[in-house]
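Bug #77: duplicate submission created two jobs. Keeping one. Sequence:
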Amino acid sequence: MPTLSSHHPTEEQSAANSAALRGAIVGAAKYGIASLALALVGTVISPVYRNLTIQFKVFIQMSGMTLGGWIEADRRLRGYEFWRLAEARRKRDEDVWREWERMVGEEKQGER
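Kept job's structure:
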């Protein structure tokens, strides 16, 4: 059984990891900005939010960023999976087309 230290990810795994990482960073940034905007609105409007401790406000901010990173990473990973399946289907169809072209070419040469 392979150990964790002997595991070397394949090119496909590395590409999927990269897509998920980019998604997590973008999602954390997008949701972080939205969380910050909501925090500013909450500070101006809500006395309840103003009275929260700084630790709890940071927790709320980080929760929004974590949620955004998770959602966007999943979306990007599903998009990557869809792209890989479409690419595999395209290659398979291309191979079938080449086989048909080869068979038609052989038939034409046989007729001559």
